[in-house]
Amino acid sequence: MHTNLFSPVTLNPTLTLKNRVAMAPLTRCMAAADLTPTDDMAAYYARRADVGLIISEATIIRADAQGYPNVPGIFRPSHIEGWQKVTDAVHEKGGTIFCQLWHVGRVSHQVFHGSRPVSASAIGLNERIPRMPGLTYPVPRALGSGEIEQLIEDYAVAASNSRSAGFDGVEIHGANGYLLDQFLHYASNHREDEFGGTPENMVRFPLAVVDAVIAAVGADRVGLRLSPGAYAHMTEDPRDKAVFQLLLAELDKRDLAYLHVGIFDDSMTFDALDGMRSSEFLRANYKGTFMGCGSYTADQADQGIAEGKFDLAAIGRPLIANPDYIQRVQQGEALVEYDAEMLKTLV
Ligand code: FNR
Ligand code: 8K6
């Protein structure tokens, strides 16, 4: 059973994973007030160390990257110390763990960091802020080009900090309508400078971040998550497809550890992607190692690997509900069903 899912995979000369199940990045909002990861978080991740790769919950690269309460950071010495406890606990159990590097851009509010949120353009999201009753997202401020240079540097420093904290690598969060994704979609990028207006310009900042992070920690240790289909904090535009096709052609030259699709339900199809699913579009336009995700059962994930739809599968909500997911699937035991109530505690 599940022979594909439980076969090891060599990503590159640096990293071999013991199986093809990744723990999807899952924001839990359980870090301390100063955004330092806690001992409870170390125990939570260590309980899941038998997956091939743990991708940490999204972790902010600097103060104005925050858009949810109590998310962890990776930009202060205390953050590095807290994450070191997490990575030590995971490594003691034989696990491998990447840090997901995050900037939310316009999906934020000044209550989190005292300044107006930043984005590609001054285009607001007409949505309420989850877990913050009564708050809606304000119109962000468009980043100046000098500020973009600084951000590129901040991503690279966060990647170096992740390695200092013992992470085996990093996943750049370029998905789900957050900052990098805001540059990649026409709905949120109306810039008229070298970062907007054409596919070449729209991929410039995200690619510069990828290159700076590669320079900091090496391509073998860098993954990237993308959402070519606009489904979260984003509206689709038929022109988006060309932006992602160019980006994927460029990424193919860079030997990343893997590319990962950002989607909640991979049965969704997108008009802007010629009716394709997000994973189908990425697989068709990218030659390297590809990680599927999005409401997959173990059976479907195993079959997806067998059919060549993806090389690894990230599992999210079932791993919140079942810390012993790998053992249960291997032994053919029933899984506990996920319930959003489970987000209240770190089990
Ligand atoms: C998520 N997801 C998510 N994605 C991401 O890139 N970074 C993150 O920090 C989070 N946080 C997060 C929190 C919670 C509570 C949920 C449910 C989801 C999306 C997640 O990685 C994954 O794409 C989806 O959950 C779909 O996979 P499953 O759960 O159907 O296996
Ligand atoms: C990435 C930050 C996530 C913050 C935590 C909120 C997660 C809520 C998860 C609810 C899951 C419902 C899935 C519905 C899919 C909708 C796609 C937009």
Describe this structure in words.
It is built from 12 helices and 14 strands. The relative contact order is 0.14. The chain has a single domain (9-344), classed as Alpha-Beta Barrel (TIM Barrel). It has helices at residues 39-46, 77-92, 110-113, 145-164, 179-184, 199-202, 204-217, 240-251, 278-285, 298-306, 317-321, 325-330; strands at 9-10, 16-17, 21-23, 53-60, 97-102, 118-119, 141-142, 169-174, 222-226, 258-261, 269-270, 276-277, 290-293, 312-315. By secondary structure, it is α/β, with parallel strands linked by helices. It starts with 8 loop residues before the first strand and ends in a 17-residue tail after the last helix. The strands form 4 sheets. It has an 8-stranded parallel barrel with strand order 3-4-5-8-9-10-13-14, surrounded by 5 helices. It has a two-stranded antiparallel ribbon with strand order 1-2. Strands 6-7 form a two-stranded parallel ribbon. It is 32% helix and 15% strand. The mean pLDDT is 97.
